[in-house]
User: What shape does this take?
Amino acid sequence: MNSLLERLADRPVLVIGDLMVDQFVIGTVDRISPEAPVPIVRFNHETSRLGGAANVANNVKVLGGHVELVGVIGSDDDGSRLVAELAERSIGTSGIVSDPARCTTRKLRVVTTRNQQVARIDYENDAEITANVEATVIRKIGELASTAQAIVISDYLKGVVSAAVAQAAVEASRTHRVPLLVDPKVPHIEYYAGATVITPNHHEAEAVTHMRIRSSLDAAEVARRFRDRARCESVLITRGEHGMWLLAVDDEMELRAEAREVADVTGAGDTVISALALACAAGASLPDAARLANRAAGIVVGKFGPATVTVEEMRQSLVDSR
Assistant: This one.
């Protein structure tokens, strides 16, 4: 694992998907409103974080990789701030397309100082991108894929990952002989045919296969059926406190959950696919990449909101687990 961590540095990864801003309004709750049975939140402070595919890219960057991002924003203040923050973090933004007909996706969460979520407001347009914007996105994928050693699709059903965009990513991975990893959404399962590995959570895997996962044997069967339905090479099912199940081309294995304390699972899937993709870009086998991703997930769920994991934290977790 330590050897693999050293090899992550500067590995180029291309991330394609739905860009978001995760905004948190944080305050204290002392009483219920007399106007309606809802808590009154006394404002304390607010903060914003990169969300969706932007969080995937940020996770790749923090783990030491070099990352380019392809996605769509609105011609608005949220989009401008998102691009500026990405640039500050040295995340490539040349693949980001501005569409004046859309708003930048923003999820506003009202949260107490004890990290209890009170409400969420979504500012979004989740219709598929128009043909002109889609053509520009596909062109950006073609331009940026040539230097990537792994490609990621981060699909949040916000309109960027159309059938044509997904197919462009599949073709780019084949042309340049690099792995394509997909964090999926069930309605788009047909889009990902030809992917190297897809990483559904257990709810998504159950929905696609019409099976329940109650045991490791169930997970193994669901992974096989998922692979057949999605027409991909490998499947990594994330199962929360039950760990992960990997079905690779020549191997299958269960990985126990690494988390010691769970604070928030928001964005954990972003961390999983980021670590998995970066490890694959570094030449790791899929089982080794899955072990690295499992360790990263165990760390990130101990943090609040969409978060990242550093190489130093990964090394320390290896020391602590001895």
